[in-house]
Specification:
Four copies of one chain form a homotetramer.
Chain A lengths: L2 E11 L1 H4 L6 H7 L12 E5 L8 E5 L9 H7 L1 E9 L15 E3 L2 E9 L2 H10 L3 H4 L7 H11 L6 H18 L6 E8 L4 E7 L8 E3 L2 H7 L4 H4 L6 E4 L11 E3 L4 E5 L5 E4 L15
Antiparallel strand pairs in A: 1-4, 1-10, 2-3, 2-4, 5-6, 6-7, 7-8, 8-12, 9-10, 9-11, 12-13
Helix pairs in contact in A: 4-6, 6-7
Protein name (chains A, B, C, D): Class II glutamine amidotransferase
InterPro entries (chains A, B, C, D): EgtC-like, Gamma-glu_amide_hydrolase, GATase_2_dom, Ntn_hydrolases_N
Pfam families (chains A, B, C, D): GATase_4
Chain lengths: 287, 287, 287, 287
């Protein structure tokens, strides 16, 4: 059910990640090895922050990533210090551009791998909880977009991790009220253009895989002959649903269960992720 | 903002209406003469009732009708006693299959030409009014689909015209509460497979055009040499946004303002259409 | 590199083959078990002969078969005594409707699973050999469509199997002249609406898989409790790249290497398939 | 039958031409005022030379330009000193990405507005004349792509205008041999990344419209208060099928009949365009 990549660091042409790695997203779109589905062919999307600043931009497509005729030229053209790419395997909602990730609001981008369990039974209640002033921005029909708008409703723009903890807590609370045992399964990639948040969590405690590239200095030391790695700076980080190569030990580190990474200028942070019960007062009819 | 056709009568290949008339929908998709927009190229859809009974079926496309490569073969294949075809000119929501008409619920099909004015300001409130048990069926983001689900909420399946009058009354009430002077503009085509309802109405009192073919006997008498017309039976009726030909006086009759037609086996009916204020008790948070 | 199915027999709704079998084409589009590629998501097509006679019709799509939003309704609507369905995994040429099988010429339909090896080096020479009066019908860029037009050039309409033997012989001859060791790999499904030709051949002698359903009487006797099988008549035949179920021994019979089946009213035939060297003189006035 | 724009000058975001002008290409896609067809909704394409050099890149789409959901972000992202944009109104060949302009070969881009008359009767003969070593690059089925490959065959890369004169002469010669009175109608935009060639010609002597922006100094003097114009340098040039605004006299200059412009660093040139009879000997070894 979807795979994604994110990059944070010195400006990089998107093709470096999408086309010039062994087990790239394009390869994963046909042959995912660690996902729930081996094929992720239900559209894709890329969101990036322009190298010269400003609001994030997107390219989203109905096509499988492997057969998109524009992607190669666009991925060569676009250089960005921060981007997210996502390939979709639908869990039931239609294949259409507005259902392709990343979702966008102002300077925020959002990608999701996973599912809100039995979303058809909780969709209306979750949508109702979205802040009415934000509601107009919802264009698709996915659980992922609803989760994004809940996070915005619960304060994503001022307290990103807290807001996601409240949004996920709310989803679990609504799910449990409907007798759903494990209401959510997710890895998330979220950014405001300055930080990249990568979160791994599931109600079940067995979340989709998520990896982050190791410290650049360590990687360079491990592979002194790899020219690509010698260009890595200590700020460069890649977050991936599946490692971009399997044969280079020491390059990828698994993100632990129920954990959030904050990738940012200077030292990154790793903190526990704990959903919290959120009051309905944050949203609903009174707005 | 869209054009549509509907047919009720002896089983007919869809191509007869779509391809074998002078000013067919395909022609209107490029050169609408009486619509607000001359181009209706934002996708299209056809819904039909199978000749041997059962639930209605649909073919919907992202493409302009004039360039769809499958339509000619499908329109030759499909014979139906009751079908609706719709070409879209979006008023802002994305071009995608789930936004193409007809919308479907059980045995009901629904097409709309027009607009709910300033829908972005009233969308959430209108969606909230949809019966929670129906909500799951909403897959797109258009004003038209919302209007259909409001009609279902207000009783379309048991009292079709009454339900539409209540739904439109509700839309006007919500619109007025938001300071919108003329909240709705519409022609509607609605069917349950047994009757075809064609409604023309707008808050402004200047509605989109709508025409119905005249009594077959009259048409045959007017054009004794027209072979196609000699096959018409008294039950066959065509409803159109724009006449399929302009050069045959007496064939098309304009549907009056604020009027509903009921096309059915036996005598058809024509009744006034008057929106009525509808209580929120039909819907909303208590469900 | 593609999978296909064909049906010959009493009129059948296409959904019976596409949706109501265990390992249907739709399932194979995601999880082919015997093909070269496990994913066949580069568009698809269906061609059928109308139940009331006349030229064949087609529905072709850019989408993967698994996510096409129209297919279910169309497959329920269309009943046909003879149809072919094909899912594509491109070997390099673009994903576009004109590259989706079946190809059509007059009353003929044609599907291909396999490849003309190194087609980019022989394409021009093969196209040049196509009869100039047929050339205009070529709309796409695939090896498969070129093979179809070569078969037409070499007499498909009057001597179907002989023409394909000459066309394949010509492809091998041109390939060998370019130093290509094994110029062709194929299973073909071809029909004129009266007979269904199924051919399995490759220059290498290790062809793509192909199966045909066994004699209906035998199948009914094997599975007396299977209601679906009790409706089979002795004329009904299904040809498939992969069995539609793996758990029913005795239902599917492999088509031998270098063999052509002729499925027709009355007794079917099975004959050897031997490409023959073909003179360029077949290929139009200018040569 | 299509409209196009081209830009040559200081690096410019593509959105400046596509979105920030009054009668932009997007507007022309719905309401062309000087074209043969008012609607140009059969796909579109943009080709550009990267600001930092290298081969040209493209974005091509099946959608009408007015409804493409990615174009706005891409047009804001891409800055280029030389680009061509084209909207298509098909004259019969399918709407598909490979039929969208610009066509590309190495460092060359090519757009065409017009038609090779009765192309279906001359297509094979024209294709045969394409150099066999170039043939592999033909992916679509349009007259325009064939014209481009003929120009390449006749020496576009070493003698651009001469090659086009020979290619057009050849098309006229083949056309006349088939009894076609006026074999070609065209405006062309061609570039190698260093120069932009704009050609207006038709066998009939009544060619599609083509305009070029006037000398920047003159424009600045005419409109001292227009901020956008004050940024124009003397090197900046825009070539358009239709003026981007109708209300600014002195800004656009019509390209005369049978004329080629060479827009380049330093003084531009304007020369007569005269097709010349071309020997088939140009067209590769086998002829």
């Amino acid at each position: 059910m979807c795979r994604w990549n994110a990059y944070f660091g010195q400006p990089l042409a998107i093709e470096e990640l999408l086309f010039k790695t062994k087990h790239s997203l394009i390869d994963q779109s046909l042959h995912s090895t660690r996902g729930v589905e081996t094929t992720n062919g239900d559209g894709f999307g890329i969101g990036w922050y322009p190298a010269d600043g400003g609001a994030p931009r997107r390219y989203r497509s109905l096509n499988p990533m492997w057969s998109d005729q524009n992607l190669q030229d666009l991925a060569a053209e676009i250089r960005s210090p921060l981007f997210l790419a996502h390939i979709r395997a639908t869990t039931g909602t239609p294949v259409q551009q507005v259902n392709s990730h990343p979702f966008k609001h102002g300077k925020w981008l959002f990608v999701h791998n996973g599912v809100i369990t039995d979303f058809h039974t909780t969709r209306r209640e979750l949508l109702l909880a979205v802040d009415p002033t934000l509601f107009e921005g919802i264009h698709g029909s996915t659980d992922s977009e609803t989760l994004f708008y809940l996070a915005l409703t619960f304060g994503l723009e001022t307290d990103p991790l807290g807001a996601v903890e409240r949004a996920v807590g709310f989803v679990e609370q609504v799910g449990h009220a409907h007798g759903i045992e494990h209401p959510i399964q997710m890895t998330l990639g979220i950014s405001d253009g300055e930080r990249l948040y990568a979160i791994r969590y599931s109600s079940l405690g067995q979340s989709r895989t998520l990896y982050v590239s190791c410290d650049a200095a360590a990687v360079r030391a491990l592979y002194p002959d790899n020219a690509r790695f010698q260009h890595l700076t200590d700020e460069d980080r890649i977050v991936v649903s599946e490692p971009l190569n399997e044969d280079l030990p020491g390059v990828w580190q698994e993100v632990p269960e129920a954990t959030a990474l904050i990738i940012q200028p200077g030292a990154d942070e790793q903190v526990p992720f704990s959903p919290v019960a959120a009051s309905l007062a944050h949203a609903g009819p009174s707005h």
